[in-house]
């Protein structure tokens, strides 16, 4: 029962993270492009501040629940007298998930700080540069997230 609940929490955290990136990249950003730079950058900064706080929690939930589920499967195999070989899809999911967390860390703790400083200073060109970098890395993470979902569904 706990495995099922952890899997549900794991998947819901992934949905929040990947779905939020898709929404921001394909819907929010294009709509915000119609706004003047000061308004656009303040809006995107406020949205990302909330979203990145949620993603920080989601990433921790995904990491902890994933490690627990892998550990539980390994423990169950060993207790049954079997060896544990992690399935390839799990290995890919875990590896790419860690890459996504690292990229998110760069976005949140480096690039978003640049955007925050630019918005606070009303330095709109610097804010635009920071947003361009954030957009690029969010798109990379979105592609990795979609790849993980695909691998999991096609191989699992």
Helix/sheet category:
mainly alpha
CA-based shape: elongated
Measured on Cα atoms, how large is the radius of gyration?
18 Å
Number of domain units = 1
Uncertain runs are: none
Number of helices: 4
Q: What oligomeric state do the depicted chains represent?
A: single chain
| β-strand amount | under 5%
Strand count, sense and barrel status of the largest sheet are: none
Mean pLDDT metric:
96
What percent of the residues sit in helical stretches (DSSP H or I)? Answer: over 70%
Order of helices and strands: HHHH
For the record, give the distance between the C-alpha atoms at the N and C termini, rounded to a whole number: 20 Å
Number of E-type strands: 0
Could you please describe the fold and organization of this structure?
This protein has helices at residues 2-32, 37-79, 88-120, 124-155. By secondary structure, the protein is mainly α. The chain has one domain (2-155). The longest helix is centred in the middle third of the chain and has 43 residues, at 37-79. The model has no long low-confidence stretch (mean pLDDT 96).
Defining key terms:
elongated, 4 helices, 156 residues
Quick overview of this protein structure:
By secondary structure, the chain is mainly alpha-helical. Helices cover 89% and strands 0% of the residues. It has one domain.
Secondary structure topology:
Blueprint: H1 2-32, H2 37-79, H3 88-120, H4 124-155
Helix pairs in contact: 1-2, 1-4, 2-3, 3-4
């Amino acid at each position: 029962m706990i495995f099922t609940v952890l899997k549900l929490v794991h998947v819901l955290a992934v949905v929040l993270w990947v779905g939020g990136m898709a929404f921001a990249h394909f819907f929010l950003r294009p709509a915000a492009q119609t706004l003047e730079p000061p308004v656009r950058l303040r809006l995107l900064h406020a949205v990302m501040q909330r979203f990145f706080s949620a993603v920080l929690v989601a990433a921790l939930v995904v990491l902890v629940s994933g490690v627990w589920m892998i550990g539980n499967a390994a423990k169950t195999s060993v207790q049954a007298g079997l060896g544990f070989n992690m399935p390839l899809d799990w290995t890919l999911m875990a590896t790419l998930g860690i890459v996504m967390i690292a990229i998110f860390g760069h976005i949140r703790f480096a690039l978003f700080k640049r955007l925050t400083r630019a918005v606070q200073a009303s330095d709109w060109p610097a804010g635009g540069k920071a947003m361009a970098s954030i957009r690029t890395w969010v798109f990379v993470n979105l592609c990795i997230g979609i790849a993980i979902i695909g691998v999991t569904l096609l191989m699992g």
